[in-house]
């Protein structure tokens, strides 16, 4: 791409894999996060670091200016109240990014890393600051923004290298583990794959031996586009 790609949470465990994969493809990458110390420890020298906080929209304007795509992989706190609450990081933060991108965002792509279970309000994860409710609200904000987008819902994350057979699913009914490496690759591939635009999907790896390169084109082609409901995905 001619313009930079912003990775919000690019010093995190998924984000840094996204950053490395984008750099390997020759992209210019802007890593956005709060901690310069974490950036020094985890960021490749070729990436540009911008100190910014999704809870403070004023800090996002410079790093997001002119970006061709945004990957949002921010980890929330688990208390219902307080500065890191799921409401502020998974919903408020997403709204701030969308607002800052604003009308200038036409032609740009937003990849949101969400999570499986997000539509199941009675799941135990929702006891942590209504994490699932706020994630779903963040998803809905992206889907109704008018932007080109991909919403990725990983199952439980592992640090194993990508292994076994990868499944992309829709409807949020199953469960399972998936490697951060596969999630990062999905984020990167989704940006340039029209079949992955306007879709919401879950990810799960089936245990087993390495099965070779992931057939992303085939997997994305098997996905249904979200219904244009305005505020809610068809599966919610
Ligand atoms: N763990 C699981 O099993 C699981 C399952 C499904 C989905 N997920 C989700 O997958 C995503 C990626 O997970 P991960 O393991 O890569 O997380 P991680 O390693 O904890 O990284 C989180 C990133 O978020 C950034 N961040 C946190 N608060 C921020 C803020 N207010 N403004 C800007 N950046 C902020 C952090 O950087 P700074 O601290 O420098 O700001 C860090 O780079 C998260 O949303 C996670 O909840 C996790």
UniProtKB/TrEMBL annotation:
Pfam short name (any one): NAD_binding_10
Database matches in InterPro entries: NAD(P)-bd_dom, NAD(P)-bd_dom_sf
Domain NAD(P)-binding: 9-194
Spans traversing the lipid bilayer: none
SUPFAM superfamilies tied to this protein: NAD(P)-binding Rossmann-fold domains
Stated name of the protein: NAD-dependent epimerase
